[in-house]
Amino acid sequence: MLHALCSKMNTMGGKVSPLLGTLALVSGMSGLRLDRPMVQTMWTALFILLSAIIGWMYVTTPSLALMYVVVEWCVYYLGHILFFRFKLHHRLRKSLGDERAWATYESVLGVVFFNLGWSLAMFLRVHAETVDLSIPTAVATTLGGALFFVSVGIKTWATHLVGMDVYYYRDLFHDRAGDGALVTSGPYSVFSNPMYGIGNVSMHGAALEAASIQGWAVAIVFHVSIYVFYMSVERPFVRRVYASAP
Known about the structure:
By secondary structure, the protein is mainly α. It has helices at 18-30, 38-58, 62-85, 88-96, 98-126, 137-162, 164-167, 170-174, 201-210, 213-241.
C-alpha cells in the first residue's frame, strides 16, 4: 500500500509481547485499531458489532447478499476513488481540523474494512457449493484454506513492516509524505505491492473453500477494483510526493 512508503509506526505506543502485537495488528487490519483513544475504539467496535449482527441475521438470501456486496463495492472502491479524486479529504480536514478529521475517517474506514470481508463471508454463506470442482471436497477445503492463510499471513507481515497508519492511508489522507523510506525487506523484496496482490488472494481461497463460482466472481471484482483505486488514486499520489517511487 502506497508502495510501502511511510515510516513504520509502533502501533501500540510501547513495547508489547509478540502475541499481543500480532493480535492488535490483525484486529486493526480487520477494522478495529486497539491503539486509538478509548472513545474512538468503542464507537468503531460498536458499529462493527452492529454490522456483524445485521449481516448474520438478515443477509440470508441471494438477493440480499448481492445487495450487501454491491453496497460495499460502491462505498469502498467507487466511493473511495471519488472521495480522493474530488478532494473531499481536504474539505473534511478544513471543516474538522486535521486530527479530528483523521480520527473520523479512520473510524469510518475501519467499519468499511470489516464490512468488506463480512459482505463476502455472508455472500459465500448463501452461495456455497454452487459449482462442481471435480475434486474431493477435502482437497478443495485444504487448498482454499491454505491460500487463505498464506495470503493473510503475507498481508499481515507486510502491514507489520510498514505500519498500521500506512494500511489506513494516513499519508494519502493528509496529502503529504511520511518520515520513512521505501521498505524493500520481507514480502516487499519479492512483490511491489503485497497487500493488494497476494494479500487479496485470501478472497479467492475463501471462494474455493466454499466451492462458490459466484463468490469467486465477487472476489475477482473486488481484487481488480483495488488495483483501479491504486492506479487512479494511490500511484499518482506516490509519484507526486515521493521522488524515489517508481
